């Protein structure tokens, strides 16, 4: 048997060692779509890919990432369990570190981070609940994205008692951190504060400005602010007696609506339960849009209230001052009266009665004789540094 390729005896052409070996190689590239919960994290000015994982209790860093970021790591072995066996750990950590991780400009503060071998996870870092559930962090889902935001954090100094080894009680000050969830920013599709003829660019620009000062806007009673510049008191004529009235009779439908409105006021803290001897009746007033406003009839209380004196703005003077202006802005406070607190004594005098319940206001309601004066005084305090000043700009910049 002779090979027809090389002429050597002992093998066939199909087994000839000189036959060219041709291998077909297919190059496979793994192209992964960006995970919607994948973010860019920053530690010590070093950027890395981080996966936000609400199912992970711990925050995990690859070993090489810890070195790259210059993190001080303490040797620490801890078994971690994943899906599968609850007896045999899926992996073991090689260390731990306390790290401040910044994602989307949000910093949760120092967080205990576990350091793991490079081959146990895909992303450089997995951000777990010990970072996400920090009081300083708020997050919510918008579409397919997980949006991070800073919570409004309030630090309070409180006293705590500890027991030393000698069984003696010592007192020390502890900083207690309380977090309030940040509000979701206003989406452009929901932005209805601009005329419909405005361009998309103008709407987007104003939307960005509103979101920058989003804490100054209220879209519901729960979001109303409360001024610290003033508070309203109700001073009565000497010898006055508490106003005590029976509730006005209403229809069954109005009675249900009144009960719902009062419940909302109490839920938002604008009204609280009362044992005040005062009791003014309430009534529903129909507004132009067909809705009803619940008003308290304070006429008897107003008759025995001392009148306050403060200069009120004259409408004609206000209009004359705008005569030569070209650009006008109208600022309308959201329930402006309800952003002014009452003194404890005044709150008791605002007590009202319905057919089903009673309550007293914590904020200044409509209907009080001194409300207009108090509101005007507050506006003067707010605008005192701007009144009489003209801020000019060249019209070519508009």
From TrEMBL:
Annotated Gene3D superfamilies: 3.30.70.270, Acid Proteases, HIV Type 1 Reverse Transcriptase, subunit A, domain 1, Zinc finger, CCHC-type
Domain Peptidase A2: 48-131
Identification of the protein by name: CCHC-type domain-containing protein
MF annotations from Gene Ontology: aspartic-type endopeptidase activity; endonuclease activity; nucleic acid binding; nucleotidyltransferase activity; zinc ion binding
CCHC-type domain residues: 3-17
Keywords: Endonuclease, Hydrolase, Metal-binding, Nuclease, Nucleotidyltransferase, Transferase, Zinc, Zinc-finger
Coiled-coil spans in chain: none
């Amino acid at each position: 048997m002779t090979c027809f390729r090389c002429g050597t005896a002992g093998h066939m052409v199909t087994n000839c060692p000189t036959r060219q070996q041709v291998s077909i190689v297919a190059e496979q590239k793994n192209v992964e779509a960006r995970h919607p919960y994948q973010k860019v994290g920053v530690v010590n000015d070093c950027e890395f890919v981080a996966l936000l994982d609400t199912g992970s209790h711990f925050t995990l860093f690859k070993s090489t990432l810890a070195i790259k970021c210059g993190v001080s790591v303490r040797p620490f072995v801890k078994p971690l369990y994943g899906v599968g066996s609850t007896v045999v750990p899926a992996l073991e950590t090689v260390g731990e570190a306390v790290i401040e991780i910044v994602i989307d400009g949000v910093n949760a503060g120092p967080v205990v981070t576990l350091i793991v071998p490079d081959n146990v996870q895909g992303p450089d870092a997995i951000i777990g609940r010990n970072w996400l559930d920090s009081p300083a962090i708020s997050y919510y889902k918008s579409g397919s994205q997980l949006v991070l935001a800073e919570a409004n954090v309030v630090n309070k100094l409180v006293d705590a008692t500890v027991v030393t080894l000698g069984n003696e009680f010592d007192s020390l000050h502890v900083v207690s951190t309380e977090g309030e969830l940040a509000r979701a920013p206003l989406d452009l599709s929901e932005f209805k504060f601009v005329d419909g003829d405005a361009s998309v660019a103008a709407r987007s620009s104003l939307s960005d400005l509103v979101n920058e000062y989003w804490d100054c806007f209220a879209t519901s009673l729960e979001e109303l602010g409360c001024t610290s510049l003033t508070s309203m008191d109700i001073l009565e004529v000497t010898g006055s007696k508490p106003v005590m009235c029976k509730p006005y009779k209403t229809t069954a439908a109005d009675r249900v609506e009144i009960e719902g409105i009062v419940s909302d006021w109490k839920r938002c803290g604008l009204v609280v339960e009362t044992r005040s001897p005062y009791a003014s009746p309430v009534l529903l007033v129909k507004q132009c849009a067909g809705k009803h406003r619940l008003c308290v009839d304070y006429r008897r209380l107003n008759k025995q209230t001392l009148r306050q004196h403060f200069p009120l703005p004259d409408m004609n003077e206000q209009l004359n001052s705008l005569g030569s202006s070209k650009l006008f802005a109208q600022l309308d406070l959201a329930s402006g009266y309800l952003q002014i607190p009452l003194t404890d004594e005044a709150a008791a005098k605002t007590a009202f009665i319905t057919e089903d319940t009673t309550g007293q206001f914590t904020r200044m309601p409509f209907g009080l004789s001194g409300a207009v004066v108090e509101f005007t005084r507050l506006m003067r305090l707010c605008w005192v540094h701007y009144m009489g000043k003209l801020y000019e700009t060249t019209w070519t910049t508009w």
